[in-house]
Structure formats: C-alpha cells, structure tokens
Amino acid sequence: FAELSACVFLNENIPVWLYSRTVATPFVPFAVLELKCLAGIMVTASHNPKEDNGYKVYWTNSAQIIPPHDKNIQTSIMENLEPLETSWNLELLLSDKLNDPYDQMVELYFRKLQANVPRPFITDYNASSSLRFVYSAMHGVGYPFVVKAFECARLPALIAVPEQRDPDPEFRTVKFPNPEEGKSSLVLSMQLANETGCDVILANDPDADRLACAEKDAKGEWRVFSGNELGALLGWWAIRCYREQYPDRSLSDCYLIASTVSSKMCRSIANVDGLHFIETLTGFKWMGNKSVELLSQGKTVLFAFEEAIGFMFAPTVLDKDGVSAACHLATMACYLRATSNQSLADKLNELYDIYGFHCTFASYHFCYEPPVIERIFKRIRNMETEGVEDQRYPQSIAGGRFKIADVRDLTTGYDSSQPDGRAVLPTSKSSQMITFSFENGAVVTLRTSGTEPKVKYYAEMCAQPGQRDWNGSKATLREMVDSIVEELLQPKENNLTPRSD
C-alpha cells in the first residue's frame, strides 16, 4: 500500500520520501514537519482487528487532516473510484525522485527526544535506577524504537515479551491487538513481569502511537492505569520537566490540551498551577491542529492527551506518540522511586489530594447495525414530551434522582448551556455525540466510534481539592453510568454486546 501510494505521487512528478522499513506512526508526521513535505501518509490499521486495513493522512502542518481537507479528499475518491493504469507501475520506485528518510529521521527524532528529557533526570535517576520494565509491542513495530528511546534516556534495559516483540499481522496471542482493552491484552506481559520480578509494564499498540501501563501494587496485584490516569500523571510530569529545564520562565503562556471525552484532571492542574487548558473535539487531529495554532502564536504546548491512551509530550510530533510517552513515563517512574520512594499509583493519589479526586468510567458496547445506532440516538433526542422545540432530551436519570443541568449535542449543534443554544465546538452530522452535565458535577458523554462498530460512553465525577470521600464519588458515578446505559442505550432491547472485560 505504501509503495502504491508513492507511485501515485511519482506519476505526477512529485518527489516522495518512502521509509524503507516499518516505522512507528509518529515518524511520519515528524518527517512531514522536518522535511517540509506537502503531506504524509501512514499505512496502518493501528489497533483494529487484523482484517482491517487503513491509513492516516497528515497535512502540510504535520497534523492529521481536518475539514475541509478530509471532505475534499473523500470527494476526490468518489470521483475516481477506478485507479489509473499507471498507478500500478511499480517501476517508478526506481525513480531518482524517491528517497528513503529512515536514517536521517530516526537519528533526528531521538536527538530531539533526548533533549526533551531534563539532563539531571537522565544522569541522576535513570542511569542508576533499579527499576525494570517489561515491554510489549503487541505484535507491532514499536520494539526497536522504544529500545532506542530507553538507550537515549539511559533507562534500564527493557525485558520484551518475546511472543509479541516482532511484527505479526495475525496478532496470534491476543483477541484484540489493543492495549486499551486492559488486562486481557496484557496477560503475557504480566506473566513475564511476574517471572522476572518487574513492577512496571509498558505496552504499545501495533503502530506504536498509543501507550498502556500497568504497575504491581503492594499486594502483588496488577493495576492497569486508564488513559485518564496516565494523562494526569504525564500532564503533571510535563510541567515538572518544563520547570526543571526553564526554572526562570513563567507558566502563563503554557498549555495543556485534552479531548472533550477525556478527564478534566489537566484542567484542574492548570487552574491551580497557572497554566491554560484547552478542550477539543475527540481525536488527535483536533489537538494537533490546535497545537499548530497555539505554536504559531508563540505559545508553549506542554502536553496533550486523549483517554484512549494517546499522549503528545512536547510538540516534536503533532500527534499521539507511544514511543516518547514510554520514555517519559519510565523516566517519571525512576524519578519518583529515587526522590520519594513513590510508585506511579502513589503519585496519582497525591495529585488527587492536591488537585481534587477525578473518578472516571469509560467503556463501550458493540453494535454492528448502523440503523440501530441511529435509532438509539434519535430516541435520546426525543424522550421528553416537554422541552425546547425539537430538542427533547432526558431531564434526569434513575427515576429523577440525578438531574441533568445541560445537554450538548455535537451532532446537531445544540448546547443548552450557551445563551443562543448553539454549540461552540465544531459539529458533525456524520457521527453521534451527546454530552450530559449533571447538577451533582458529573459529566457523561455518549458517542459512536469513528473506526469501530462501537457505542462508547465516558463518565467523570470531579471532586474539589481536599474532598476525601473518594469511594462515595465512585459509587455515585457507577450508579449513574449503570442508569445511563440501561435507560438510554437499552442494550437488551437493541441487542448490544458489552465489552468483554
């Protein structure tokens, strides 16, 4: 696919950089930026089932495409469904307009990654750390790049899961090649960590733009951190690294970014520490393009994340990057162990004490019939007989116990919290997304996946700093989520299949 894509451009006399071997996804947007390319294509099905094929497209600014470019490309596809005969001519791969950027880009990427890790952290903590890390590439491409990242930061050598270390399109050891699935995808990693006495597991998805992490607790049980929990830790760490490297600079021009379905923990951190926080639509294409906008204004983007274990640490790559995230998370773990004998979980609890406990639940149901999804969301929009004309959303759940304060529908463009009733964030009729804000401070979003047959839900309860009834917050949110699923999604009536674990 990559070679055929290259030939299409070469046919039009457009020079092409084509990586000669498999690379982690971040290396394509990185090359677009560094080589000043017009666009970039990454051929990958990412973490999707093995039957899927796909590719990501990056624009001239090295961020993923957004409107109008995506719509224009789609229109062009529909107008040219039959490939040109010349597009199959692979002899063009011998053209002098085709070059391999691998050595140049790999060297530059790791030089810049190393520069983003404060030097004292490398020499004082990483180089002497007794921590060891088990790593899984999930049958993908990440292993050689994460090994190189660890070498650059003088982190302890990785212990790789041998069955999952090298690329294998059959994904023979996992049902879903997606570390976002949690423990079910990390079984071999946990076995190896137990055998080798390792306390921390790191795992990339097959194209290495996402990062999962698990840590063994004092009882010997494995805790798989959610994307929101890792986002809180890495958000704090991005600020800590910036302060270490630039102790005399103010944080007043610094930004943290998260998608709208992700935890608001970074917002709480920004409010206390004097940074800015920006929320975007779901997907790194929006966070990448927002970063481009901020950087053009002379602002500093420290960190961006989405709950689906995607992290952008410093704008070296304007997309999620599982390689750099692995390096920074491991460095943080070594730093915490050396300076305060804390685990990652200990640090997360400390952050909750300082910035307020943020409790989140996120999951999904499979739905393989698009008309059923349409029916579910149409019903949600027309549940009440009273209300604003054509906007009859539910006003409460659980028999009226939890009242809804505001509704934002980014499919229709409605937002009851705005004076004119119009949503501020961009809207799209091609996907479903409704957010309910409750009077008790909880926020729940229902949305469809852009790449998989799923109806997803995201819920969060945000406590104030010093509020200690964390179990009470969890119990209330759990009850609310159960009510939302049963009353709005109606899994039995709609034949929805719940997530397996």
Automatic annotation (TrEMBL):
<dbReference type="InterPro" id="IPR005846">
    <property type="entry name" value="A-D-PHexomutase_a/b/a-III"/>
</dbReference>
<dbReference type="InterPro" id="IPR016066">
    <property type="entry name" value="A-D-PHexomutase_CS"/>
</dbReference>
<comment type="similarity">
    <text>Belongs to the phosphohexose mutase family.</text>
</comment>
<dbReference type="GO" id="GO:0000287">
    <property type="term" value="F:magnesium ion binding"/>
</dbReference>
<dbReference type="InterPro" id="IPR005844">
    <property type="entry name" value="A-D-PHexomutase_a/b/a-I"/>
</dbReference>
<dbReference type="InterPro" id="IPR016055">
    <property type="entry name" value="A-D-PHexomutase_a/b/a-I/II/III"/>
</dbReference>
<protein>
    <recommendedName>
        <fullName>Phosphoglucomutase</fullName>
    </recommendedName>
</protein>
<feature type="domain" description="Alpha-D-phosphohexomutase alpha/beta/alpha">
    <location>
        <begin position="1"/>
        <end position="80"/>
    </location>
</feature>
<keyword id="KW-0460">Magnesium</keyword>
<dbReference type="InterPro" id="IPR036900">
    <property type="entry name" value="A-D-PHexomutase_C_sf"/>
</dbReference>
<dbReference type="Pfam" id="PF02880">
    <property type="entry name" value="PGM_PMM_III"/>
</dbReference>
<dbReference type="GO" id="GO:0005634">
    <property type="term" value="C:nucleus"/>
</dbReference>
<dbReference type="GO" id="GO:0005975">
    <property type="term" value="P:carbohydrate metabolic process"/>
</dbReference>
<feature type="domain" description="Alpha-D-phosphohexomutase alpha/beta/alpha">
    <location>
        <begin position="109"/>
        <end position="216"/>
    </location>
</feature>
<dbReference type="Pfam" id="PF02878">
    <property type="entry name" value="PGM_PMM_I"/>
</dbReference>
<dbReference type="GO" id="GO:0008973">
    <property type="term" value="F:phosphopentomutase activity"/>
</dbReference>
<feature type="domain" description="Alpha-D-phosphohexomutase alpha/beta/alpha">
    <location>
        <begin position="254"/>
        <end position="353"/>
    </location>
</feature>
<dbReference type="GO" id="GO:0006166">
    <property type="term" value="P:purine ribonucleoside salvage"/>
</dbReference>
<keyword id="KW-0479">Metal-binding</keyword>
<dbReference type="Pfam" id="PF02879">
    <property type="entry name" value="PGM_PMM_II"/>
</dbReference>
<dbReference type="InterPro" id="IPR005845">
    <property type="entry name" value="A-D-PHexomutase_a/b/a-II"/>
</dbReference>
<keyword id="KW-0597">Phosphoprotein</keyword>
<keyword id="KW-0413">Isomerase</keyword>
<dbReference type="InterPro" id="IPR005841">
    <property type="entry name" value="Alpha-D-phosphohexomutase_SF"/>
</dbReference>
